[in-house]
Amino acid sequence: MAYELMERIVAFGxxxxxxxxxxxxxxxxSLESENVVLILCSTWTGGTVPELCEPFMAxxxxxxxxxxxxxxxxxxxxxxxxxxxxKVYGENFCKSSLDIHNALVSLxxxxxxxxxxxxxxxxxxARFTSWSCRVESSVLSLCPSSGLESQAPVSASxxxxxxxxxxxxxxxRKSSPPSESCGDCSCGEPPVEPATRPKKKKKQKKxxxxxxxxxxxxxxxxxxVCDSDSDDEGGVVESKGExxxxxxxxxxxxxxxxxxxxxxxxxxxxxxxLQRKALTKEGYKIIGTHSAVKMxxxxxxxMRGRGGxxxxxxxxxxxxxxxxxxxxxxCANKCVFCWRHHKNPVGTxxxxxxxxxxxxxxxxxxxxQAMVNQMRGVPGVLPERFKEAFxxxxxxxxxxxxxxxxxxxxxxxxxxxxxxxxTFLVTNAQFPEAIRDMDPVTQLxxxxxxxxxxxxxxxxxxxxxDFWQRFRTSLVHMREKxxxxxxxxxxxxxWNMDEVQQYSDLIAEGCxxxxxxxxVTYCGKSDASSLTMQNVPWHHEVCDYAEAISANLKAxxxxxxxxxxYVPGYSIATEHEHSCCVLLxxxxxxxxxxxxxxxxxxxxxxxxxxxxxxxxxxxxxxSSDYMAKTPSWxxxxxxxxxxDPVESRWRRNKAGAIVEIEYKASDSGCG
Length: 671
Hints:
Elements: H1 2-10, E1 17-22, E2 36-42, H2 54-65, E3 78-85, H3 95-106, E4 110-111, E5 116-119, H4 124-142, E6 154-157, E7 164-169, H5 216-224, H6 254-266, H7 273-281, E8 285-287, E9 291-294, H8 297-303, H9 310-315, E10 322-326, H10 357-373, H11 383-388, E11 394-397, H12 409-418, E12 422-427, H13 432-436, E13 443-447, H14 453-459, H15 467-479, E14 484-491, H16 500-510, E15 514-519, H17 539-558, E16 570-576, E17 581-586, H18 587-590, E18 591-592, E19 595-596, E20 599-600, H19 602-614, E21 627-628, E22 649-652, E23 658-661
Helix pairs in contact: 2-3, 5-6, 10-12, 16-17
């Protein structure tokens, strides 16, 4: 069918050039540079695409659900979809084609036509003839009548079993205005004008279907923070110090206290049906009643040899062997920059049914491996990395929520360590006792999003009334840890970038091994946050801020001779320009003979933590015992700016095409 459609279009002469590609071989990175995409897709068991096309479908839906991907990504792309299937399958009839249509629309693409369905038991041939005629008219009407040359890439997917992608490029010729009939066939269908982007409809309050009635947990969550759909002053915190939208747990009243007590008594599940539906739609794999796992885009990137995450540059993790998970989707904060737009539960204490740590870890690995398997057949995936990706070597306990809330967090971490999986645990520093009682992890983080009580209340929007005291106590307990500790600072313009002195004071309290300073990630427009792209700092601004912190700490020591208040010196050791992130490291611990040692010897850590457990916690070790030398390409101000030269960097040229950037050998000999 794709070839038949191609023949119809090229029959008009050198108007467009057509290329056909099997859907399983199509690189989604090319989608942004297309002008018109035509898709013919058959339906498989359960309304899905054929098995070989699953990587294409999974990748497309991942783009559509990823908050980091612009909803105008495909705003220059026009498309049409025809589904092939059988009506006997009821609600699954051509479901995959509708899913593709909706995903493209959500990414900003404009439909030439509405999605069309063909029943292979009755009208398939007639439907295809009619659809292809209308597509032909639409495509040809896009060509300018001036006779000037114009590149018009068009892709079409088709095929009964595998699917095909057809790319059309060429120069436009003068074309006569469309007549009242198609002219080149006898289908009698009227021509279709190119679709225009629909006007934005006035936002309406979401109506919850009867089958999705609010559960008790939904009511508790909604009471913690005022309804974000509200337009009144009690909604989103709009500026520094403005926290009218917060409702402290102590002020919820007798009815809410009774509801929480009931929740504990009956062992209610943390994740409600509404929350499960919202999180699943965004790609989360819900584990049990309160945990989740999701594949990071950097895992996919490095599996294709296209670069690792900032942890690869800073600490030497293998991004394609990293699993991102959480044992607690609930959190005690409602941060303005939260990438989940507050779809996860909230709470100040554990009041839910509790799953076992062994079950959580086992299922998390299983779900992660299933997501790795979905990368099978994705264009560009390196076979050796695909195979190695099934062996998880690192776990970032930072997906969403507050991992340290989970009552059995130490047992869960041990389950990971026993499997030789390193642990990077992030906490919002609202549970100081849990931090104090935490067993060794590979690296322990606290999020330091603000340096004053006022700005923290505005940015993190904590549920605890004594949030500032909890935060400061957590820093004290962090200082007592012997393993690697990190402050994670998220910079938000107009919110917390004028607090250099105050941040330095907090660093002096906790003396962490490292300080990650990162620009806030814009999560898109949301009623849950007032942030815009204007609040996102540039990489050079992040570097300047880190330099200011470093200078302030060094000046503090120069101006103070009291050894009791001595603060170690910090300098920028590494950077990851792509993530707008830099790493400040302690010079007294991680700069040896003038060279940085911010990387981790993971095999050595495995040995040390095994000895720790075997001795019942008697055999201690420190962060210096498992450090490794940082490669030159990862160092601050290196030519690579934190991009591993072993990887292949992909950028777009002026024409929008993706091109590989070739690295030339440097004086260091690393790339």
